[in-house]
Amino acid sequence: MFEQLTYSDRIKAYELLIKQLQALSEDEKDETALLANASSLLNQFLDQVNWVGFYLWKNDELVLGPFQGLPACVRIPYGKGVCGTAIKEKETQLVADVHAFPGHIACDTASNSEIVVPILRNGEIYGVLDIDSPIKDRFDETDKHYLEKYVEALIAYL
């Protein structure tokens, strides 16, 4: 399992994941296809997650995009919940316990921790990468760093 890897092996695994994303994306131009494969790849790669997907910025709100997991909230207002906060602050939200996060939007009651990486394209809001886990404190600074790199790699193809 991924979480049982040594720190060094986790870094190598994340670097390989980013290379796999690039290989899957290099000849594809359709954004839906790119985001669908990107969410599927993460869902396959990460342990102890129950939702992996994207919300896209449309008409001043986040709208559900390609994802892996149970049905989700379709629209999230600017500044609301973890996803809306990530967009408002334009920085990754690493939440150890979503139940302690003010204004958390509970799409899946099984989720206990979350990481949300804002996606900016040419300085403009594009959306967010949202990953939930049923495990409290599931995500750490290593996840944050490499998921931000994952998003940077993905942006090159969007």
Question: What's this model, at a glance?
Answer:
With 158 residues, the protein is of the alpha+beta class. It contains four helices and six strands.
Q: Give me the number of helical elements.
A: 4
Identify the CATH homologous superfamily.
GAF domain
- Reported by name, the CATH topology is Beta-Lactamase
Q: Tell me what portion of residues adopts beta-strand conformation.
A: 25-35%
* Alpha-carbon distance between the two ends: 30 Å
Query: How does CATH name the architecture?
Result: 2-Layer Sandwich
> Which strand order do you get reading across the main beta sheet?
3-2-1-6-5-4
Topology as a string of helices (H) and strands (E)? HHEEEHEEEH
Number of domains: 1
User: For the report, how would you describe the main beta sheet?
Assistant: 6 strands, antiparallel
CATH class, please?
Alpha Beta
Query: What characteristic shape results from the CA principal axes?
Result: globular
Q: What ranges have pLDDT less than 50 throughout 5 or more consecutive residues?
A: none
Domain GAF: 29-148
GO molecular function: L-methionine-(R)-S-oxide reductase activity
InterPro entries: FRMsr_CS (IPR000614), GAF (IPR003018), GAF-like_dom_sf (IPR029016), Phosphatase_reg/MetRdx (IPR051330)
Pfam families: GAF_2
Description of the molecule:
The protein has four helices and six strands; from the N terminus they run ααβββαβββα. With 158 residues, the chain is of the alpha+beta class. The chain has one domain: GAF domain (Beta-Lactamase), CATH 3.30.450. α1 packs antiparallel against α2 and α1 runs parallel beside α4. The radius of gyration is 14 Å and the shape is globular.
